[in-house]
Amino acid sequence: MAWRWSVGPVILLAACWAEVDVKDESACGADLSPCADGGRCWDGVCLPAPACPDGDCAGERSLAVPDTNLRTCVGPAEEGASGAIECPGSPGAPDCADTALCGQDAQYGWDLDHADGARWAREGDDEPVVTDAVTGMTWAGCALGLSGPDCAEGEALIGDAYAAEEACAALEWGGYSDWELASADALHLLVDFSRTGPAVDDTAFPGTPGDYPDVYDAWWEDCHWSSTLLATDPEVAWVLMTNSGDIAEGSGTDYHLNDRAADGWAGCAARCARGAPLATRGRFQVVEEVAGEGVVIDHAGGRAWTACAAGQSGADCSGEAALVPWEEALAWCEGLVWGGRDDWRLPDVVELRSIVDLRYDSPSVDPALFPGTPYYGEDTRTNVGQFWSSTGRDYNSFALYVEFRSGFSHFYVMDEGRHARCVR
User: Which CA distances in Å does 146 have to 149, 213, 221, 408?
Assistant: First the structure.
């Protein structure tokens, strides 16, 4: 079934964070393409990027949004069986919304035109350095404590977050001395979602430390520290769950919050980065060309988002956000008419997490940009606040989602109901 929403045309432009002057730009190209002198094109007009809201955004850097490297479409699968399928339908075509499982991660994006591993350039032997061609970031090719061409020399530093942060700040590696412990956003950009256990490119990043698969329970314990703190508790840090690619505030077979002191548990490994991106303030702008159908322009990410979740509408995104199975979420976005556009799709998991703002909690997103975003507590429905991505797993009928109460990412069965927010 396809869902198509549309209302009569009303032109209204609103900016978030700061006033933005709109100017004609005769050379403005396709929607979201860069303007000649900065900003993004929208409907033939150049929208200059919003200014920093308070004039004090020192140290904040642009957030690039790479693809996931998932190159296989998936469908429901029995436990232990592969869910890989031939990609169905024609993504973006009018009939995709009526074609089961059309519109998946593997059918869109940078990966369609680039080979597996094309993002990464690894150089050096004893102290290898990896450059990301998409984000421009530089990574230490080995986790802290390890070295050598295959990162097989030394012993990985597994410990508390304070030691990891200090070690990155003091690191002299590959001819550079400006390393830092990566943010949670940066770590999520490192994940290769075509792999698990570990969920990183093992040619670019060999020897990623962890006890899995020798210790199966380590699937829920192996982790990498980030420099990003939990909004509600500065003694807790976000981590990358090494085996799944999840960003989490808690981990362990016996679940616990990831306290930075690692009191009573082993702690995490760490990997240092240079030029690590942070979610920037002032990068978003709201355009409303159709009354009640706000569109959020991400000037840094080069994407547009529906301000409301599926089931909501209006300037305040009123109404109950729908909870739908994964297949219906794919169809919903493929069939959506919103803000005068009909080329929406369900975002992949990296895109979806790119709008999370970990300075906020309940919900973990700027409410001025995405009003009415549901979260558990205010609403107690099962899975409320969890939004489907288009990124699936090829086992156990799993697909990935992002939870917008605190901001973690995870995966679970496709048949369960979760929310949908669309991107173009």
Answer: 10, 20, 20, 28
Host domain of residue 306:
1-18+50-114+281-424
Domain assignment present for residue 378? The answer is: yes
The contacts of residue 4 (CB under 8 Å, 6+ apart) are: 335, 336, 337, 342
- Buried/exposed 225-245: b ≥16 CB within 10 Å, e otherwise: bbbbbbbeeeebbbbbbbbbb
Rounded to two decimals, the pTM is 0.92
Residue 65 or residue 142, greater confidence: 142
Residue type (1 letter), 266: A
* Mean pLDDT of all residues in 105-114: 97
| In a shared domain, residues 110 and 155 | no
Contact assessment for residue 365 and residue 355, using Cβ atoms and an 8 Å cutoff? yes
pLDDT (tens digit per residue) in 368-399: 999 999 999 989 999 999 999 999 999 999 99
Of 274, 298, 331, the last residue of a domain is: 274
Query: Using one digit for the tens of pLDDT, what is the confidence trace for 11-32?
Result: 223 333 333 444 444 468 999 9
Give a yes or no: residue 307 inside a domain.
yes
Would you say residue 131 lies in a domain? no
- pLDDT exceeds 80 at position 119: yes
Name the CA dihedral angle for 409, 415, 416, 417, rounded to a multiple of 10 degrees: 100
Domain boundary among 274, 304, 330: 274
Q: Is 119 left (phi over 0), alpha (psi -120 to 50) or beta?
A: alpha
Tell me, what's the pLDDT at 53? Answer: 66
Q: Which residues contact 270 (CB under 8 A, 6 or more apart)?
A: 143, 144, 157, 164, 167, 168, 181, 224, 225
